[in-house]
Design a protein that fits this description.
Radius of gyration: 22 Å
CATH topology: Alkaline Phosphatase, subunit A
CATH architecture: 3-Layer(aba) Sandwich
CATH superfamily: Alkaline Phosphatase, subunit A
Number of strands: 22
Structural class: alpha/beta
Oligomer: single chain
Distance between the termini: 82 Å
Number of domains: 1
Largest sheet: 9 strands, mixed
CATH class: Alpha Beta
Helix content: 25-40%
Number of helices: 12
């Protein structure tokens, strides 16, 4: 073959590869995987999702190099059940873990909530267990919130666990710290930065011949609102001293962005980047308002409500996936997906056997490769609890562009068409009664199929005392006044 023929053949091969799209994995058959989970992130908190105040250059760059999902959902509107669903692929309702651990108790509200377990079931399938079984080194760094001693990450397939225990949020983002395998430090040490250093240590410890799975679960941007003063001052100056957008929260978002940038730089330095899938998402929507100051915290865009609600602001999440050689740079996917999909998807990517236990999520690898549809068209949620942010016990179903929410206090329904009303401002349940009843029936049938626990009428309901809460010691800044402690 002469030089001209060689160049023509090479060009044809390149065109052929392009015609196949970005769906051909150019890396190892067992790629490295980093699942970067941000706590309590608002759907619109990143620049690439529309925020014009927060500065997130590293995350925006990741989106420009990968695929950004616009209809990604958490499995629940609060942390523990959402994380359980993400790590197991099973619906929180099936796991019987539908509230944050240990939960709150409102003894005088209209209905009594199902009990909250103290941990994830010991035999629950997890991404880490399955990947470890095929040779992956597995690490969990940051928030766990799925149980204490005996139910820590190392009990569910993780080789390394740094700071993962029963903490649901930091007492302070500044040292000294008192987490599992992370103690000491000084008041000058900032938790997000410390966890980043631990992630870099983990990456530096992996063998070039052994794939790894890193579950990087940030405590940020969960309250308390705390960040280093220099970065806070930057945002105070930027907003002219106004309380909104909140300059401390903005600084916390930027620290998360810096952490993501540090991980990417470490991957490059270690020559691991080309064979590492990086996934960025969150566990539930952002906190809408800080009760004591009555001003907006997270940016949920135009979505209704926030954390603790089954409206879009409480469950729709940012999701960015970068898989070198597979995801098309700068692509956008509008197909609805859920945190339950990570387990079957990551096992498929790693060529692991499908979990022997039932999976409620599905393999969405095709969407990473450029597909524009799934065989599934329906998503479900079950949150039979009162949230500390004001949400009421409810269930929800999304089918296509239609979404129905059923509220368990009186079983009334609300129906929205998200294609024309993503902010859920216009209840169409009276105008489209047949559609509403069809979705309600499907929601009821799904609840039966997963044996979802339901609340029951409260014989001691007292409207005047309904806001009184009994919970774990240390009622936090998010909770409404009238908090009682056990």
């Amino acid at each position: 073959m002469n030089r001209r023929d060689f160049l023509l053949a090479s060009s044809a091969s390149a065109v052929g590869a392009a015609s196949l799209g970005w769906g051909q994995n150019l890396g190892n058959s067992k790629p490295n995987i980093i699942l970067f989970l941000v706590d309590d992130l608002g759907w619109g908190d990143f620049g690439c999702y529309g925020d014009r105040f927060h500065e997130t250059p590293n995350i925006d760059k990741l989106a420009s190099e990968g695929v950004k999902f616009t209809n990604a959902y958490a499995a629940a509107p609060v942390c523990s059940p959402s994380r359980a669903g993400l790590l197991t692929g099973q619906a929180p309702a099936r796991l019987q873990l539908t509230q944050w651990i240990p939960g709150s108790h409102f003894p005088r509200k209209q209905v009594l909530e199902p009990p909250t377990p103290t941990h994830l079931a010991a035999d629950a399938p997890t991404i880490a267990r399955e990947l470890k079984s095929i040779g992956y080194k597995t690490g969990a760094i940051g928030k766990w919130h799925l149980g204490g001693e005996g139910y820590l990450p190392e009990n569910f397939g993780f080789d390394v666990n740094i700071a993962g225990d029963n903490h649901g949020h930091p007492t302070s983002y500044f040292g000294p710290f008192n987490y599992h395998n992370l103690t000491g430090y000084t008041v000058g040490d900032y938790l997000t930065e410390v966890l980043s250093a631990k992630a870099e240590e983990f990456l530096g410890s992996v063998s070039k011949t052994q794939p790894f799975f890193l579950y990087m679960a940030e405590y940020a941007v969960h309250m308390p609102l705390q960040a280093k003063q220099a970065l806070v001052e930057k945002y105070k100056l930027k907003n002219g001293g106004k309380p909104e957008p909140d300059p401390v929260y903005a600084a916390m978002v930027e620290y998360v962005d810096i952490a993501l940038g540090a991980i990417r730089k470490t991957l490059e330095n270690l020559k691991l980047a080309d064979n590492t899938i990086l996934i960025v998402t969150s566990d539930n929507g952002g906190v809408g308002y800080q009760a004591k100051k009555l001003h907006r915290i997270a940016d949920n865009g135009d979505l209704r409500a926030g954390k603790g609600f089954l409206y879009e602001g409480g469950i729709r999440e940012p999701l960015i996936v970068h898989w070198p050689g597979v995801t098309r740079p700068g692509s956008v996917c509008d197909v609805p997906v859920t945190g339950l999909d990570f387990m079957p998807t990551l096992l498929s990517i790693a060529h692991a056997k499908r979990s022997p236990q039932v999976q409620d999520g599905i393999d969405i690898t095709g969407l990473f490769r450029g597909d524009t549809e799934l065989k599934r068209d329906t998503l479900y949620w079950h949150y039979p609890h009162y949230s500390d942010q004001g949400g009421r016990p409810a269930g929800a179903i999304r089918e296509g562009d239609w979404k129905l929410i059923e509220f368990f206090e009186d079983m009334h329904i609300e129906l929205y068409n998200l294609s024309v009303d993503p902010g859920e401002r216009y209840d169409l349940s009276s105008s489209f009664q047949n559609k509403a009843e069809d979705l309600r029936h499907k929601l009821h049938e799904w609840r039966k199929s997963v044996d979802a626990a339901m609340p029951r009428p409260n014989p001691e309901y007292n409207e005047a005392l309904a806001s009184l809460r009994v919970g774990a010691p240390g009622c936090s800044w998010e909770h409404t006044p009238g908090c009682l402690e056990d």
